[in-house]
């Protein structure tokens, strides 16, 4: 793995963990990948060697993650921070545009992990999650709407992801 790819993976794993979407094991694995790729720092070594035992892994991350990221010139987003939620939304929007997740997976993720309380940046995605629910629930003459209704919502989600990556914030 190229060092830049490993660093990006670590940054993303740390951000997703900060919003409750990623696991401590994801972050620790990304730290190990950095070491394998030739990226090194004293605290990164400690982080990579952190326990993944259930119950202690988040404490280990809280103790070492900020310093490890700082040593690597990466950004630390504290758990529950709005800046972290904003960045997590952008990470997931990029994953949609890279076709590693579906449009529905993105809106479900935003609804489940960011919520209305997380950041206004996710409001459009959360609204589109509701649009999916309506399309799936609505029937006409006892028959579900045709699949093209969901395809229209998919297109709206892709457009919203592009807007998010462009860095413009909506009103919600």
The shape is elongated
Question: First CA to last CA: what distance?
Answer: 38 Å
Assembly status: single chain
Number of helices: 8
Largest sheet: 2 strands, antiparallel
* SS strand fraction: under 5%
User: What structural class do helix, strand and pairing data support?
Assistant: mainly alpha
Give me the Rg, rounded. 18 Å
The count of DSSP E runs of length 2 or more, i.e. the number of strands, is 2
- Indicate the percent of residues in helices: 55-70%
The low-confidence parts are 168-172
Write down the secondary-structure element order.
HHHHHHHEEH
Give an overview of the whole structure.
- This protein has 172 residues and is mostly helical.
- It contains 8 helices and 2 strands, in the order αααααααββα.
- It is elongated.
- Residues 168-172 have low confidence and may be disordered.
Give the topology:
Blueprint: H1 3-18, H2 24-36, H3 42-48, H4 57-71, H5 82-97, H6 103-118, H7 123-137, E1 139-140, E2 143-144, H8 148-165
Antiparallel strand pairs: 1-2
Descriptive labels:
elongated, 172 residues, mainly alpha, two-stranded antiparallel ribbon, 2 strands
TL;DR?
With 172 residues, the protein is mainly alpha-helical. 67% of the residues lie in helices and 2% in strands.
